[in-house]
Amino acid sequence: MSGTVAFEQVGPIGVICISNPPVNAISHSVRQGLIDVITRAETSPGIRALLIMSSGEIFSAGADIAEFDHPQGEPSLQQVQSRIESLPIPVVVAIHGLALGGGLELAMACHYRFAHKNAKLGMPEITLGIIPGAGGTQRLPRLIGACAALGMILFGTPVSALDAKAKGLVDEVAENDMREAALRFCERLLRDQAGPRPTCNRTLADHLNETEIAAALQAHARALKGRTTQDLVVEAIKASKLPFGQGIAIEAALAQKSLASRESLALRHVFFAERESGKLSGQFSAKQAQPPALRRVAIIGAGTMGSGIAMAFVDAGLEMLINDNDPAALTRSREIVQSTYASSVRRRRITQDIADERMRRFRSTVALAEVTDADLVIEAVFEDMELKKDVLSKLDSILPPERLIATNTSTLSVTELSLATAYPGRVLGLHFFVPAQASKLLEIVRTDHTSPETLSTAFRVAKLLKKVAVVSRDAFGFIGNRMMLDGYFREAEQLLLEGATPAQVDTALENFGFAMGPQRVSDLGGNDVGTKARIQLFKRESRPDPYFLIADRLTEMGRLGQKTGRGFYRYEDGSREALPDAEVVDLIEKLASERGILRREISDQEIVERCILSLINVGAMVLEEGIAARAADIDVVWTSGYGFPRHVGGPMFYADTLGLSNVLQRIRHYHEKLGHYWRPVRLIERLAAEGSSFEQWDRTSTSQ
Ligand code: 3H9
Q1: What's residue 535's pLDDT?
Q2: What pLDDT, in 10s, does the model give residues 167-208?
Q3: What would you report as the CA-atom Rg of the chain, rounded to the nearest whole angstrom?
Q4: CA of 63 to the centre of ligand 1 (A)
Q5: Is the CB of 278 under 6 A from ligand 1?
Q6: What residue owns the CA closest to ligand 1's atom 27?
Q7: What pLDDT was estimated at residue 703?
């Protein structure tokens, strides 16, 4: 008998409980356990109904994704479902927390569905590049209609229990004690002599037509740009109009196809990489770090970044105090936050009550001494070494030594800042991205002094804020900006000088899958912001001849980007549409001729290849220098913070899919053509010579 599924008899009801922490994934042991207890229930006298539930926080996160790389052992989830569907007694499922993917597919094979009012039900398979392959594309249309099923599967986001009931996915919603209510529901079925009700026998209420398909694909076009899984989803749902057995066979073939796709391999890589990057590794994992409680947070500096960070903590339910010695800055910050919440209320993202409650937790003070009871203090004052050192040393003198102090610097040395305190072990960098309350990535910057407890608390901060955490060693630009400046953006500028236009570079990279091309990103963030950051950063380390000629010249000319209506592009009043500007092309031509660069036609393919290869080469350097601990961490940084297409898996995963010897050969080609900065990184040379990959490098280096 499997240890992950328990069975108990309560009067005429056999209660089956799945218990497979942490998320009740439907692994092989659960599937076997379900078959075993069903067999046992069939032979237990007096059992007239079955109730399937789960222990823990959620019903189930779906099939066990870790099993996807190997052939699925029997019994398959489909076999378990057929067994349930064909039982002669009613089978009820009681859902609490979340029922996702295979978890919901298991539930859909039960005869009746009962859910707690706080439960959510969804089919997120598309986010992993696969189609719901355990009957999801055949049973969901039979329960809620083919068109609604298509929308739900393409969207991937779960719906509430009440929505699910309105759609016909759930029969009844429980208000309070789930188990008791579900048992009462089973008893009622028995009293009413309600028998089994296999979903596979239901007839389909509607069929998909081409107009509905086009509309559904259009509604999710942005999220699915460059993707292919959606086409397989459509094909599978179309098959739901066939007899169930035929539809299921088509679904199984399409599911196999999706599972083997590059897109799915890449998305699954990112899924696990994001979870791995948020854990202590190497020397730190050996130590048992016990992070202190985290209830109150203080932010120093009420500028845009400080206010955004403050909002992130308020949204996460913490007590927050923002400090600035300028009362006007505090007033402005409060106004910004208030207007952000007002807009969320208008868009019905939160209620007025929630906005009011959040504003009550958004407290401010001009007195630094008031932050002493904060469990964590984050400084977000101007990027000025002396100013930041002063703030940190003051904080150090008023906070007990076990409290954590973080700096939000994106350019300065965190090590140098930490040495302004008596306890550098409690100092680290928390590099938030703009807008801090909404961005997904949090770079955690550790120095050689940062203690395991401090790091461990930082991970908890990320979890609380629902952000993806990646640890970077303290170094020029950390992981993301180093690769952006020394690799990606640098190459994009070089391509402009050699003959490409901003629109050509941006479009080529957007077609590759980037959310936004580099020049459009610069115009959005502000060319002046980029120039200032680079000046600060280049003070940290001496760099070769400045290579952001164009961006810096645009800043000098007051072409700051969208905010001034002119940057790499021009913008009509009130519009964000980037329009080509002849003045910029003239400027680029002039700068190129000053440098003796002969301009030529450049293909989109060359643009993409050079930008991505330079990203990979600098990424390898970041790895070799120990700034990132794993190649997968770099992928997480780029997919969650810099718009690299998730379905391509991140730059290092992409390099592996190209094959490192091919990567090396192309880098050597550009090295010969373009000079020293294309020198291949030794790590790539070594891995290519060994026939190895970044993935293998990660495996061997983390197992040491
Ligand atoms: C599917 O069902 C296919 C079927 O249609 C067809 C089958 C034939 N499997 O995220 P967390 C692990 S596809 C294995 O940190 P949270 C995760 O790796 C599946 N492991 O917690 C982590 O492990 P560790 C469709 C899984 O509270 C731990 O659980 N389902 C799975 O922030 C905690 O995870 C999905 O796409 C899994 N399915 O978020 C849902 N799920 O501690 C994917 C999680 O060793 N999961 N783990 O690092 C999620 O979205 C989130 O994990 C969830 C919890 C919201 C559930």
Answers
A1: 85
A2: 999 999 999 889 999 999 999 999 999 999 999 999 888 888
A3: 28
A4: 8
A5: no
A6: 23
A7: 66
For residues 486 and 493, give the distance between their C-alpha atoms in angstroms, rounded to a whole number: 11
Q: Atom 56 (ligand 1): residue with closest C-alpha?
A: 61
Mean pLDDT of 103-111: 98
Asked whether the beta carbons of 136 and 156 are under 8 A apart, the reply is no
Tell me which residues are annotated as active site: 105, 125
Asked if 463 contacts 418 with a C-beta cutoff of 8 angstroms, the reply is: no
Q: Give percent of the chain with pLDDT exceeding 90.
A: 88
Nearest atom, ligand 1, residue 62 CA: 2
Does the C-beta of 105 come closer than 6 Å to ligand 1? Answer: yes
**For the segment 295-348, what is each residue's pLDDT rounded down to a tens digit?**
999 999 999 999 999 999 999 999 999 999 999 999 999 999 999 999 999 999
Burial 3-24 (b: 16+ CB within 10 A, else e): ebbbbeeeeebbbbbbbbeebb
Burial of 654 (0-12, 13-18, 19+ CB in 10 A): buried
Cα separation of 317 and 314, whole Å?
5
Q: How many CA atoms lie within 13 A of 279 on its CB side?
A: 12
What count of other Cβ atoms lies within 10 Å of the Cβ of residue 194? 15
Question: Taking the chain, what is the end-to-end CA distance rounded to the nearest angstrom?
Answer: 36
Is the distance from the beta carbon of residue 65 to the nearest atom of ligand 1 less than 6 Å?
yes
Q: Is 393 in contact with 420 (CB distance < 8 Å)? A: yes
Counted residue by residue, the chain has a size of 704
pTM (2 d.p.): 0.94
